[in-house]
Amino acid sequence: MYTVTKRMEVSAAHHLVLDYESKCEHLHGHNWIIYVTCQAEALDRNGMVVDFKKIKELVHAKMDHQNLNDVFDFNPTAENIAKWICDTVPHCVKVTVQESEGNVATYEL
After folding, report:
1. CA-CA-CA-CA torsion for 86, 94, 65, 14, nearest 10 degrees?
2. Is 41 a catalytic residue?
3. Which of 24, 25, 41, 79 is catalytic?
């Protein structure tokens, strides 16, 4: 089994829709640190699981320097973002999203 992991940083803003009072209900931004792990039993014709550039393009195109509430049709929590990335990137098996120091969410197949 081949495994690759891409680390990237994304600057984006969001606010959360919550059923309790929180500062996070107000628009704010993060410099998200995201790890995307992909696996395959065989490499493609280029000798890759998936090109690192492709992973970055898929995530950055949707998220970088955006208000995430405007681009997603779900509440943009770190958990929901991790799942969206995993569903979007080919061969993805695990995504870790660090919203801020000490606040990390992981989605794994």
Report:
1. 80
2. no
3. 24
| Sign of CA pseudo-dihedral 72, 59, 83, 35 | negative
Query: Does the annotation mark 24 as catalytic?
Result: yes
Indicate if 99 belongs to the active site: yes
Q: What is the pLDDT of residues 65-81, one digit of tens each?
A: 999 999 999 999 999 99
DSSP-derived secondary structure letter, 24: G
Distance CA 46, CA 28 (A): 41
Please state the domain extents for the chain: 2-108
Q: Would you list which residues are annotated within the binding site for Zn(2+)?
A: 14, 28, 30
- Between CA 66 and CA 12 the distance in angstroms is 5
Which pair of structure tokens corresponds to residue 58? 């898929």
Mean pLDDT, the chain, whole residue set: 97
Q: Which of 38, 86, 91, 99 is catalytic?
A: 99
Q: 84-98, pLDDT tens digit by residue?
A: 999 999 999 999 999
Q: Which CATH class is domain 2-108?
A: alpha beta
pLDDT for the residue 24: 86
